[in-house]
Amino acid sequence: MNVGVPPERGTTTNKMDGAGNVVQAAELRDVHFHGVPDGGSQPGLVSTIAPVDLLPGKVFGREQLVARLVEVTQRADGSHVVLHGTGGSGKTAVALSLAQRLDKDFPRTRVWWVDGSSENSLSAGLREVVYDADPHHRVEEVMRAWRGEGSAPNLLKKVLAEIPGRWTLIIDGADDQRLLTQWRPALQHDTGTVVMTTRHNKAKEWSRCAEVHQVSTLHEEAAVEMLRALAPGSGTPEQARELACTLGFLPLALRLAGSYLSSVPSLPTTAGLALPESFEQYRLVFHERFGELDQLHEIGSDLAERDLLSRTWELSLDLLADLGMPWARPLLRWLSCFEQAPIPCDLANAAILTRSSLFKGITGMDLIHAFVFLTNFGLVEQVSVWGMRSSAATTKCWVLHPVIREANRHQPDVQQDLQAYLALCYATLDGYTSFLSAEVQQDLSTWAVLSPHCEFVVEWIHRDRARLPVPEDWELLGTKLSCVVARFSTLSGQHDRAEAIFRHALVVRLRHLGETHPEVLTARRNIVLLRWDRHRGEQSLAELVLLAEDTRSALGERDPLTISCQLDLALAHAQMAEQDAADRVVDDYRAIVRLSGELYGRTETTALSAQMNLVTELGRREDESCPAELLRLLTMIEEVENAPDIAGQVPFSLGKLRAAVMNLLQNSRGWSEPQN
């Protein structure tokens, strides 16, 4: 017998007794009727016996939970128990373990197992419970009630109330809570126990007094034990631990991996087809060729289609679509296209998403509804990520289980719409990172969260560029996100890594754009400034001088990039503190302010920065022109305050700057009160 966690649905035994409609219960989840079920069939056509034969041995890591459930059932006080968790977490395995334990240790406790995944299966199963539990064998009355000639829920309630001794009713797969509505009053009792398994974590609301247990992933030791029991000889304990971690300790994924590896020795050898034969090889295939895993699991397996990784969570998405949540599936697909890391909640912006063909017409309220239901079904989880420098700075994020992410990322519809998904990932990341500041703690926290996603999308572009139209354009887009990663690497002190990323971006841009293109010169500027910050010497200064000259020659002196490079050079000269360069620095600051004004016709950040450094230099020298330049700075501050688009780019408080300037004015030599 195999050891592990069973599928979340079982197979029932079909019985035929006389004429009537034939029910083929091929799978516990779906009951297929041959003919129209009119409610008048004879008893015995649907099994309510728990399919414990589907338990493939030990259920790992759930011993305490099963013991608690046994304790509740033996109270027989009308308790309701809800076992909820995402697909593949092993809820049905826990329920089957409970049924098996009751049958073994408490044979006097009557146990019924009902499939709650569809209206037909739920109704048929509860009818069978009434047939089996009715001490008076009122078969005709039951048949009439289920035909609509009486109240089926009332009859169920009456029969359950008359049962002597302990009883437990297990309703498996009650994901669609709408199906339970009419039956809820019938299941409220002072005797017996009702146990329900569901993917919906709000299902606890079906009974105010329900005892709720979340069936989540296994703890590490149980996951390792499970893999090694399923596939002995497939690797060391540490390799099993690494595979379990890669699979997110999800019981279904662990069971499929172990069951596959145990069957490998019996598979025929085929030239040119490298199948994973160990924990380590399986782990690498998961990361590199996930799409092959479902096919591998089918080899030599009797697992139903729904138990394969790519199908498990599709059932939840099917139900969400039926509940009126059509955006849930593409939203989960899109989130799966990012790195396996927390994703900022704000990245899902309806104003941006609706521009994509994937989300045409989506609204902010649509997003809220979709995320609420995705969370309720355990498909995403919301977490808070603390800032790297301040615990007060947090970023709310969505997190996907690694197996759910891979299963969605490799779905055929994602591959068919590869360009649309990739373009949306790029657009949202580019738009979000464009306004992040290096001075604001909250921005630094967000930057840290976004950086791995930027890097992942760049790698994705590089890996799949042959499948994209105009690959060179996509490569160039990728360099913009690369520079975002490099800037964050600089902020976090990884200077060598930052320079390597900047240089790679420069190589790509040079190859496609040529030496004088603004994006190439911008990439050069990133590298030169990084080197200046690290090594403030003559060589770095010479690189700044050369860049300023090349930019002016290629773009002209009134180009924004030229002006920025001029400011970089002026600041560098000031930091070198060379006496013979002092006058040149002052002249450079004034030239930058003038050129920026001529270019933009208003004050912008480069001019404001140049003017601030100008008054700092003049104040240090106690120059008599300082008060006049301070007055000009006040005017520039006011202009920026009246231009929200510019003010939003300033990484400090304009109000504090204005107060500091007023203080300098009052203490400057040659100050006199300006006339009205």
UniProtKB/TrEMBL annotation:
One Pfam match: NB-ARC
SUPFAM superfamilies for this protein: P-loop containing nucleoside triphosphate hydrolases
InterPro entries (alphabetical): NB-ARC, P-loop_NTPase, TPR-like_helical_dom_sf
Top-rank taxon, per record: Bacteria
Domain annotation NB-ARC: ranges: 64-229
Species whose genome carries this gene: Lentzea miocenica
Protein name: NB-ARC domain-containing protein
Lineage: Bacteria, Bacillati, Actinomycetota, Actinomycetes, Pseudonocardiales
